[in-house]
Amino acid sequence: MISGEGESQGQVVELTAESAGAVLREACEASGLDSSGAELVRLGSHAVYRLESAPVIVRIARDPDSLEEMERAVRVARWLESEDFPATRVLAGVQQPSAIGGRVVTFWESAQEREEYATVEELADLLRRLHWLEEPETLRLPYFDPVAKLWKGLRALDGVAEDDRGFLEERAGKLAKEYDRLDFVLPFGLIHGDANIGNVLRRRDGHAILIDLDDFTLAPREWDLILTAIFYDRFGWHTRSEYEAFVYRYGFDLMNWPGYPVLADLRELMMVVWLGRQVSTSTKSAEEFGRRVTTLRSSGSRQDWHPF
């Protein structure tokens, strides 16, 4: 996935391997780190690099206006560390975040030398523990408004056919009304915001930790369970035994809640719109976006969706 934008002499600049690499070198030099031999782990919402010279992960946000969001992520990380909660840690001794070349850059401790994902059971354990925490007001967490986030994504679509855009907007309007009528049953409070197996890594010592703290907000806790549910129920990315283990460890089966279908429809639409923002810069994303929109139009199976 190649996406992103920034400012350079008044022009929009894509977040590519080349542009991100230039920011990486400048950011590392300013922070006293060596960027030589750095590995580009992924290029999506962030350009994520693993340094060869030190156990450090560098994240370069694609959104040039994400400074406030990343400041919040750093505050969350430091608070979770003070609570001894298993999560990614910001790198000590470096000003966080920093603005380099029109991008927002953060530095994190590397969990280990390679990405090793934990299990859905460990994800459930971490979420249950997270949801017991009472966040301090100093974190200044916003309230999660999924409808506003969805419409923001729709307005940012670039390179999408007008017919597809109209279909997605109509679907969003319908789901917004249904969402307003939902009766949540879990407590309202702190959520990770993007809780899925891809954001749970194993550290060198074998313990699982939560990563990607950008979406921490205040919301009904159902939002932290929806991705694991639809990854099993709709996409087939988890097995039945994996999902049952997740439910057992967390202690609540979201799929038994009457509001599940609406929440599932809304969350998957957010996934489609997020992908649609990249169709003009990535052939792979454009193909997957087309596949997903066709599925939504026909109410077909999501089993052919590919994870991004």
How does this model look, in words?
Helix content is 40%, strand content 14%. It is of the alpha+beta class. The strands form four sheets. A five-stranded antiparallel beta sheet has the order 3-4-5-7-6, with helices on both faces. A hairpin with a 5-residue loop joins strand 9 and strand 10. It is globular and about 50 Å long.
SSE layout:
Elements: E1 7-8, E2 11-12, H1 17-30, E3 39-43, E4 46-50, E5 56-61, H2 67-82, E6 98-100, E7 103-109, H3 120-132, H4 146-155, H5 162-180, E8 188-191, E9 200-202, E10 208-210, E11 217-220, H6 226-233, H7 240-250, H8 260-276, H9 283-298
Antiparallel strand pairs: 1-2, 3-4, 4-5, 5-7, 6-7, 8-11, 9-10
Instruction: Bin the helical content.
Output: 40-55%
**Strand line-up across the major sheet:** 3-4-5-7-6
Low-pLDDT parts are 1-12
The end-to-end distance, rounded to whole angstroms, is 8 Å
Q: What string, H for helix and E for strand, traces the elements in order?
A: EEHEEEHEEHHHEEEEHHHH
Tell me the overall shape: globular
Mean pLDDT reading: 92
Give the number of DSSP strands: 11
Q: Please report which band the strand proportion falls in: under 5%, 5-15%, 15-25%, 25-35%, 35-45% or over 45%.
A: 5-15%
Radius of gyration: 19 Å
Oligomer, anyone? single chain
Structural class computed from helices and strand pairing: alpha+beta
- Count, helices: 9
- Main beta sheet strand tally, sense and closure: 5 strands, antiparallel
Write a short abstract of this structure.
The chain has 308 residues and is an alpha+beta fold. The chain is 40% helix and 14% strand.
